[in-house]
Amino acid sequence: AGVITAWVGLNLAGTAWAEDMRPVKTGTDPVVSTSDASPDMRSPLEYHPPKLFNFNTANLLPARTLQLSVGTHQTDPNGPTSGTGNQLYFGGFEWGLSDRVQLGLRYQYFEDPPGYPINGTYPPTQVMTFSGSAKVKLYETARFSVAAVGSVEQFWFKSALFNSRNDRSSEQIVPSLHIPFTLAATPNLQLHLTPSVSVFADSINGIDFYGTVASLGAGFSWKPTERWLAFGSVLVPFGPGGNTISNTQAIVRTPIWTV
């Protein structure tokens, strides 16, 4: 499925001054001061991103940086639903605890019929998630980095498909782990590869659900200037569970691409 994302971000950062501002003396040389070193005043949005919507990269926010985001993920507005089509609304924040550790909270909400008939109908469906995450830099060189991202998500899937429309029987805890690898092909272009696994319930009210899903994602992010970003990604699930409910309500595996 292709999607379009619209979002607004606000970033607050502590100034990244040089670590040691004291005068330096070498041999018989006169005192040399580093006090006129320029601070890094860039917004976090001017760096390569730590995440491409739900696709993790190995980048982290700078230390003492807070990034707030709110927006919508828009699917094809020409589908069978009225108005502007199906949207996923989201909001949250991420905090650079240090240059090697990042913490985050995120909320996502969807309430629309599916974009295609399932068992011949378009049942109203509500999906909500509230998640906390931690990201740690494992390895880094000038061009290559590796990180680990763990999250725990409170997940609801309310739909007549699972006899869960008017109760909390679909409520579940979903843990996930992502290991993103990022290569800086050029100063402006990064390539990303992210294996991951998420553990959903195998069933809801006795009806098959997603189960455990291992996936491999690949993507790129291109920043021609500090204030422009273009990106794309594809996520390919391998199972043993699935990531899609088919038109016969079977749980299947479908690649997901985002640009």
Description:
It is a single chain. Strand 12 (203-204) and strand 13 (207-208) form a beta hairpin. Mean pLDDT is 83; it is low at 1-37. The strands form four sheets. Strands 1, 4, 5, 6, 7, 8, 9, 10, 11, 14, 15 and 18 form a twelve-stranded antiparallel β-sheet that branches. Strands 2-3 form a two-stranded antiparallel sheet. The chain has no helices and 18 strands. The chain has strands at residues 4-13, 51-52, 55-56, 65-74, 87-96, 101-112, 125-140, 144-159, 172-178, 181-184, 189-199, 203-204, 207-208, 212-222, 230-240, 244-245, 251-252, 256-258. The chain starts with a strand and ends with a strand. With 259 residues, the chain is an all-beta fold.
Which key terms come to mind for this protein?
mainly beta; 0% helix; disordered N terminus; two-stranded antiparallel ribbon
Q: What distance separates the N and C termini?
A: 11 Å
Radius of gyration: 22 Å
Name the overall outline. elongated
| Class based on secondary structure composition and strand pairing | mainly beta
Mean pLDDT: 83
Tell me the number of strands: 18
By DSSP (H or I, 4+ residues per run), the number of helices equals 0
Stretches where pLDDT is under 50 for at least 5 consecutive residues are: 1-37
Give the strand content: over 45%
Element order: H for helix, E for strand:
EEEEEEEEEEEEEEEEEE
Helix content: under 10%
Largest sheet, in brief, is: 12 strands, antiparallel
